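Board notes (copied after class):
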Amino acid sequence: MSRFVRLACSVGLLAAVALAQPKPKSQKEVDAIMVMQNAQDADSRIKAAQALITKFADTEFKPFALYVIASSYQQKGDAENAIVWAEKTLEVDKTNFMCMNMIATGLAQKTREFDLDKEDKLGRAVKMANAAMEAVKTATKPNPGIPDDQWEMIKKEYTAEAHQALGLVAMARKKYPDAIAAFKTAAETTPQPDPATLVRLASAYNFANQPDNAIAAADRAMATPDVNPAIKQVAAAEKERATKAKAGK
């Protein structure tokens, strides 16, 4: 289950993950929270969350609202703003492993080969990913209403996400064996790997001149139930690349 699907399908659950039983102080605040939770798209969520923390400066839902903004920007593909708002979230919720992963992933994805601060950004990405894994290990169930098995699955998914961020860092550094190891760990952490992780694993195998393994990873990605068509297309491209490499083309 991808982070975006979790956000779209269970904002209330993520509120519980982000906070331990916050309490609204007025009906107007309740109404503002409901507008944020019921928003149907990223832009609407951002607008509603910003309205909440602007109108209710002392709201106990501020950490969650900040997280919603950060996650919504990530959904829009705006890594810059996602990182900014994830950092704001960590200022008030220092153990938010979701935002640690968001920063790690964003930094790894937006860092370019010839950036002057390339290693600074990648080094911070590694630090954030490792911090996220440590935070997940010690995280306790924030809401007794969350079933134990569901909470453990959430923790595994975010641990896998941290390993995926480390894989992205290794790819940016062109350390393909390290990338393979990180993506494999990410894929093995949950019962149903994120197909995007498998595609990245296939890419790392291709860069490492391991076409057979690349084909296997791409096939797994394409065989994932209800796989996003865009991810399936990229997986097919990685498989074709590996097939051509095997044929010496």
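Comment from the instructor: Residues 1-13, 15-19 have pLDDT under 50 and may be disordered. The chain is about 75% helix and 0% strand.
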